[in-house]
Write a structure and sequence with these properties.
heterodimer; A: mainly beta; seven-stranded mixed beta sheet; four-stranded antiparallel beta sheet; 0% helix; globular; B: mainly beta; three-stranded antiparallel beta sheet
Chain lengths: 117, 105
């Protein structure tokens, strides 16, 4: 199971870090992704982070490179999404999810981020 | 690009639902999944690898297709099946892309 936290209202230009805590000993071996959902663009894959055994490296979808950063702390079974220079169009529900081969399962419950002055 | 059709499908319990997902490029069947999303909830996996039902998914859900055309069929709709359905493709860029969804009402 994945339990998310950190969503809130942020002013444009601000920063925010979302958290996603996993349960169980398998978290450290999991490929983890972030996906966001907006009314206008639907579901968008943000990026993922590999487990340490695969280098712990990250990949991002093109629209999210530079402003978004994914990290993990396996000692806390926690995944993070750090977002910078937030814009109103970043307003969305953000989900964390586990990659299982070429699909996502399970998902966190989602957390709402609103960028507004 | 993944294109789902129709955008909205209006049916009744007991009906058969056929949802389409078309890719702009040919996919391995390994790279296609389907999700169900109810209001206010996270998506849940229904079909993975184009054909395989996720754990706990009833047999009335069936995935099919190949190449650029994939289909999710729900043989006899139950009230809990009315939701939004999304297809997902993996493209080893690496990148994941979702379809825009079909609302089953």
């Amino acid at each position: 199971q994945l339990l998310q936290s950190g969503g809130q209202v942020v002013t444009p230009g601000g920063s925010l870090t979302l958290s996603c805590e996993g349960s169980g000993s398998s978290f450290s071996q999991a490929w983890m992704s972030w996906v966001r959902q907006t009314p206008g663009k639907g579901l968008e894959w943000v990026g993922h982070i590999r487990p340490a055994t695969n280098g712990g490296t990250t990949d991002y979808a093109t629209p999210f490179r530079g402003r978004f950063s994914i990290s993990r702390d396996d000692s806390k079974n926690t995944l993070y999404l750090q977002m910078e220079s937030l814009r109103p169009e970043d307003t969305a529900v953000y989900f964390c999810t586990t990659e299982d081969n070429f699909w996502f399962d399970p998902w966190g419950q989602g957390t709402q981020v609103t960028v507004s002055s | 690009v993944l294109t789902q059709s129709p955008g909205t499908l209006s049916l009744s319990p007991g009906d058969r639902a056929t949802l389409s997902c078309r890719s702009s490029q040919s996919l391995s069947t390994n790279y296609l999944a389907w999700y169900q999303q109810r209001p206010g909830q996270a998506p849940t996996l229904v079909i993975f690898g184009a054909f395989s039902r996720a754990i706990g998914v009833p047999a009335r859900f069936r995935g099919s297709g190949s190449g650029t055309n994939f289909t999710l069929t729900i043989s006899r709709l139950e009230p809990e099946d009315f939701a939004v359905y999304y297809c997902l493709q993996y493209d080893p860029s690496p990148m994941y892309t979702f379809g825009q969804g079909t609302k089953l009402e």
